Every structure is written in structure tokens, then in C-alpha cells.
Fold this protein.
Amino acid sequence: MRFVRQLKNWWKVQSGRDDTPLDGETPYWLLSLVFHVALLLALATLLVEYQKRERIAVTLNPTVPEIEEMPALVDIEYEDDDAVGSNDSDNFEAMMDMAPAAEDITEMEATVEQEIRELGDFVINEYMPEINSEVDVTSIAVNGVAGQATTGTQGAVDRITHEILLSLEERKTLVVWMFDQSASLLKQRDEILRRFDNVYDELNTLQASGNEAFEDHDDVALLTQVVAFGSQYGPMMRKPTDEMDAIKQAIRDIKVDESGVENVFGAVAAVGREYRHLCKVDRRTGEKERNVMIVIVSDECGDDIQNLDAAIDICRSNLIRVYTIGVPAPFGRENTYVKWVDPDPQYDQSVQWAPVRQGPETVYPERIKLHFTSNEQEEELFDSGFGPFGLTRLCYQSGGMYFTVHPNRVSQGGQVPRWQTSTYSAHLSRFFDPDVMRRYRPDYVTQSEYLRRLEQNEARFALVNAARLSRVKPMRPPRLRFEKLDEARFTNEVSVAQRAAAVLEPQINDLYEELRKGERDRDDEISLRWQAGYDLAMGRVLAVKIRAESYNAMLAMAKTSLKFENPRNNTWVLKPANEISTGSQAEKLAERARMYLERVIANHPDTPWAVLAEQELQTPIGWRWTESYTRPPEPQPQRPRNNNNNNRQARQRPQQQAPAPPPRRPPPKL
């Protein structure tokens, strides 16, 4: 800083003072000021140069295709005012709520290479769709309705009649009715057969009245084919027809398939391939020959789920809409129990319950299976609000509709006892408001996409894996009554119960540890369905964990410190109680369990999750010993000797034999 020193000396000579304005930090401040001013000037220069650059303006004028005027809808009167499709304002508003929005249009999935995390022993069905380039791409396949509840088939058939008319207003149409061949569908098939006359008579009346839907067709506007499927499938008529007598006779000729197998997805794919030539666009006219609709009538979920993606691809690529008149899937379960009474009066007419696979409503079960409570009754089955996953996804992604038909459907909140269940119907004890359940719609996606979504949130992955584990290791109700007629026998019975509990506790701990992995992602979950599912599972597992540990502790107490207050008593009975005897850690877990369960009730009212959470909270979380008395078994009386004196035996009067009961046959495979 030589220049600064010279400047200071000059100032001293001129002023006669020793201190100068350049003493201290002043020089450094001046240098900083000069530097920053120069920097600001440089930046300002750059900004001015940037604004002087020539900008290019691009204006896009997209060509908007002309939208044809929507043809007027024809009002159709329905017989069942309470059924779906009836002409009342409530149902109209409900149908408008269910109509797919513009953003609900499904785009074709792109092929993406990704690493899928293995989920237990689940088998992934990979299927890459092949697009039919000859299909009419001017029409867009939109998603349909996942589940529409009704008490009978009439409302469903009436709505399908309306869909047929809408299709006829566009062009000629082929409707393929596909009936499963199970014995449990006999009653429903007869109901539809009786309704067929009204359906086609109504369409014929519209045609005779000069309805626009039939004016442009130079030949038969509506053709019908009937297909039966079970372990095999096949058409019931040589070719499609419009003759009502032939159609009805074809339905009557369907035979019962006693195999109990329903390969519905393979049958749909085959029907789609059989008639897809009708969906190809004629290059000369720009129109396809016919619309094709498929209507499935079934009361099961389908046994060939590996063919689901192929069926969806065939239907979507050819714009074939699929409708199903089916059954509601049980909430989070695969099997229901169908009421069966032998149709032959020569056999026993008592009620029997046959297991039938009608679920679940999701790709994989999302509900854990726990039985460690004091209630030894059979698990209650609820309506899930949707149909079985495979058939519902087929209808949803093809732009059709799935009708969940159950004759015992009651208003939300009501319960249906087993004895009120209609014949050939599954017993579902509770039904829920479809408007509420619509917000909890399952993910109707491929298996690989489903697993990809599980990977995005640990809470989802943990829930599905815990549900799988709970099915691999079923849990049994605990033993609660111990008779102390003999000390050694009592001790042995308690030890046996302890060993069973020792086996059970690791299973519950495995479920708990699996669910704990998802706690960190739980707050990031935005889906109502996944929120409710995870919270219910965690709350129930925590409650069962405490019950199991408390149960084991109470058994240990029975061996050492239990004494009867009433000397006459000889039996110890464990009863549920809200007493926790396993320490403060159990108290903390109990508080967490209540938090999860109460959150389900508060955030998801009027749903199956809320009902199960309420039931869990009503069940005490601990145990207490109570005393009771058991009458000892009486000694076996000795048989008197007759001393070979047969003459002293009293003569017995001959008794009339009661008529033999009718023979009993087990239910067929439904």
C-alpha cells in the first residue's frame, strides 16, 4: 500500500496534523466499495444485453375436431323402482356421480423396465398388451363403473337394456350373453330368462315406433349369441340370431357343470377373438360393422385369473364393453358360504352351507386374519361394496359395469341373520352405502403395477405382507376353562395351553414387526382405503399381541398363586377384562392400539373398517381369573348279572319303528 502511505504523508505536510482520513479501516472500505460498484455495473451490462436479444414468438393453433351432437336418449320405464336404472331422481343423481370424468380416461400403459420387489410367495402375471391397429381409434375406451349395488337382477337387466339401446343408436350391435354353468346359478338364470321377453319386446317396440336407433340399419340391428362356460366354454347356438324362441331355448339348454371350475376370463378372451372382426373399421366407409357387447352372468370370481390381462387387452383394443351381473365380494376374504337346500324333495331338505370362492375385491387380500379372542363363533363376513377383483377390473377397464346383486341387501347399518339368507345366496351379515364405499375403490391395475405402488409406500407393502402371513399361520381361539379336579391333571392342562400360547406369540410378533416397518410412511398415505386398512391392521395386531402375552402370564399365575375363595369351587375360568397384568410396556401398546382403532372410527365412518374397529374396541384387551364349579363325572354303574335266568326277563312290547329319515346329500360344487 505504498500509494496510501505517500498520500498520508502529503496530507500531514499540507494540514500539519498527524491523523489522516485514511487511518484505520478506511482504505479497505474504499476498496470494497469500488469493487462492488464495478461488479454491479458488469451485471447491469449483461442484463441489458440479454433484453436486447431478439425473441421468437411461437403461436400454436391446434385443430379442434368437430363434436357431433349427442343423440337424444330414449326414456325407458323400469318395473323395479328401487333397482338400479329406475327413472327416479335419486338414481339419476347417483348415476351422474358414477359417470367417469374426463381425467378418468385410461391411457395405454407404456413398457417400463423396473425391478419389482418380491412379495412373499405371490406369483406375478406379466402380460404386455398388443394393440389392434385396425380398431376404430376415434373412439376412446374410458373406465366404467366398478360396482353398482342392487337387490335383484331386474334392475341390472334394465340398465343393460338401456346400454344396448345406446349402442344401437351408434350402429348395429351384437350382444353375447355368457352364463356360468354352476348349480348355484340356476335360480338367477331363470330370473333372467323370464326378464328376456320384456327386454327384447321393449327393444322391438322401439324399433316398430320408428326409433332413430334402428332407422339406418338395412339388416338386423340387434343380434344375440348365448355362450356357456365352466371348465370349458362353447356357444349354445350355431350363429348369432334375433329369434327370441331360439335365444330362450339356448339358455334353457345350458347344462350344469359339476366340476365347479369357472374359466370365465379365457372364455371372454375367446369370444372377443371370435367376434373382433366385427369391430374392424372398413377403409371404404370409415365405420365398423357392429358394436360388440358382452354380458356375463356369474356368482363366482373366476378360476383362471392368469387370463385376465389377455381378456382386458382383447376387449379394450376392440372397444368391446363387458358387463357383469354378479355377486358382491366378501370384504377382504376369498370364500363365502352359500345357502343350499337339496332341490329334490326325496332328499333331506335341511339347510347346508357350501363354501364358494367369491372374493377378494382386491389383487391380494388387504385384511389380516386374526382369531385370538374369547369369541369362538365363526368370523363375520361383510359386503365389500365391490365385486370380485378380476371380473370387476374387466368391466371397469373395458368401459362396462359390474352389478353386485344380493337379494338380502339391506340399508346401511342393518344386519342380516343367517336364517334370513335366501337360497343359493351367500350369507353377508352387513351391507354398506355405495356412495360411501365409492371413495374406497380398490386399485384396478395389473399385478406388476400393483406391486410398484406397494413399493412407493412401506405402509402398503407391510399391510399386504402381514395379511399374507396371517393366512399362512392361522390362529385358534385360546382355551379358557381349566378344571382342577386333580392337581396333576390341572397342571398338565395349563402347561399344554402355555405351549400353544408359546407357539402363537411369535406369529403375532411377526405380524407386529412387519406392520411396524410401515409406520414411517403411514402419514404420507393419501388413499382412504390404504389409510383405513393399515390403521385397522395395526390396531388389531397390537390388541391381539397384548391379549396373547397377558394370556400366557395368567396361565403362569395359575400354577403358583391361585387359590379358590370358595372351597366348593373346583374350576378356574379366564374371562376377558380390561386389566393388563404384564407391565407398563403393555399399557403403552394398549394405548397405541386404541389410538389406531379410534382413528379408523373417526376418519372412516360407515365402512367395514370402522365396524371391525368398533368390535375390537368392545372386546376387552386383558384377562382375569374367575371361579366356577364343575360337577365331577359320576362313576359308571355296574351291569346286573342275570344268572343265566332268561325266564325272569320282562317281556317287552314290540315298538313301531319310526320311518327312516330321507337320505342326505352333500352340496354339489357350486
